[in-house]
Specification:
three-stranded parallel β-sheet; TIM Barrel; globular; about 325 residues; 9 strands; homodimer; alpha/beta; about 40% helix; 11 helices
Chain lengths: ~325, ~325
Amino acid sequence: MYRIDCLQFANWSERIFREMRDGGVDAVHVTIVYHETFQETVAKFSQWNRWFVDYDELILRGETAADIDTARATNRTAIFFGFQNPSPIEADIDLVEIVHKLGARFMQLSYNNQSLLATGCYEDEDPGITRMGREVIREMNRVGLVVDMSHSADRSTIEAAEISDRPIAITHANPHVWHPALRNKRPEVIKAVVDNGGMMGFSLYPHHLAGKSDCTLESFCQMVADAAETYGVAHFGIGSDLCQDQPDSIVEYMRVGRWTKGIDYGEGSASAPGFPPQPTWFETNLHFTNIEQGLRDVGFDETEVGAIMGDNWYRFFAENFGPQTS
Amino acid sequence: MYRIDCLQFANWSERIFREMRDGGVDAVHVTIVYHETFQETVAKFSQWNRWFVDYDELILRGETAADIDTARATNRTAIFFGFQNPSPIEADIDLVEIVHKLGARFMQLSYNNQSLLATGCYEDEDPGITRMGREVIREMNRVGLVVDMSHSADRSTIEAAEISDRPIAITHANPHVWHPALRNKRPEVIKAVVDNGGMMGFSLYPHHLAGKSDCTLESFCQMVADAAETYGVAHFGIGSDLCQDQPDSIVEYMRVGRWTKGIDYGEGSASAPGFPPQPTWFETNLHFTNIEQGLRDVGFDETEVGAIMGDNWYRFFAENFGPQTS
């Protein structure tokens, strides 16, 4: 049984890498970019290149699913890169292949706002995938850079699933029916993604949880059971959105970037602008065992628990990170 | 009577600068960017910095309307900078003030495609001004960088006129009612711009002309008369879109940039992909006298001819290139 988390954005440190090991986490998809330009993104890759040397007893670079097996065999965690915004490719479709070569495996077509490719979930209007967006999806399909629509608006997400020749992902979100947050996904959106063979990772970020920081493990796991029942267990995994050790200035940067001189609270509010506290049962990489047990407690068998905790993502990584074959 | 052309994109050379002088052109708004990043844009400013030294007997840097008077007094042409795409500010609102400081005076909120700010006229859908677009318009108003919607879609243009606290411009286009090209402007779009105190420059680019390369001077000038009659002569000038001495590879770059690996013919077609030939009565900066005479011939008096040939743009430049005062 693999244990894979398909979204984290920590303030990385040796302690967190050690927790990944102590928590038995085989692979993590880490966000390396929210709003950065291409050159700023290169600096992020470079930082990780240094960490892979400095902490080579704990982590290794993940480029294919096989790297996850190498990680298990050597008691390490494979780190896969992703972007929450297409800003690294700027207005240049040729940069899709360049960032894939540098290690990017997921790219959101939009963050909260309109991008050159698609619409974000905080815009009033969602015109769907743009002219450039159609071209970029085709290019992402070709090289094996997965379309991630976690922060995108509904129509854009549905169109992306339809346009993409390969499965797409919502790496970190929950069903809107369970908790009607702007970032959670309505049934027609989840259906479009899974009908295309795609996957969704369940988020543990409090704004995405029913009851927020007070959400219970039971409620979370029952939501997983309901989603698996409705759409099929093969389409789900974990994308915890864990943002460990980050100062609140980081969540402000995530929301505001450099697109406004004002302030935007995103999922927060003026009275609660910072990172919300995690539920006590999921605060670090040590806590995946809680979710595993919770899934058993709501009736999943061992194969299903394994599928959700990592086996589904392993299969998805194996099928979608290489060049298009047909 | 001023003679001002509010859009040219030539393959600049001493010969063309001399033709500006021989044609009595006091000021030209030149496009320096179609799709360039910020750093590529800086290189364009730098190139002009060199030309202002190398050809200082012919041209000078235009930053305010007063520079046009300096140009006239010293028998030179004032060059004002503009962008046909907001790509130079990337995703960074602070770059608005930076590019203004470097000399930019017009910036289109979109070229043919969706941008981070607004929609281009070749997209199927036009959701209007984006969240970032609203912020950037406010910042452009503050510093005195004029919103240009020449290539934008209708709803985006109307919303930009409404959102902007200062007049906006369509620097180069014609009324759709005269020639129903995608790039020409429908009545409700022109009305929104002029109601906001804005201006439109009449284009001499053949794809924007009734009869294209065969358009007659009479037809063009009658169109000007009709527009002046409908909306008021104070709202119009010339924005010739003259692209002298450019190879056809340039029009391909203008259309395709780096947003697709395929080809897009824009206003052209597979059988006629290049720059179309200019009408014989407007091929160079020597030919503004033809338009001037043509305007007299359709009944404009001298004051009106002066207004259209440059006095209106002079007033617009004087009012809109400095910091917002209220």
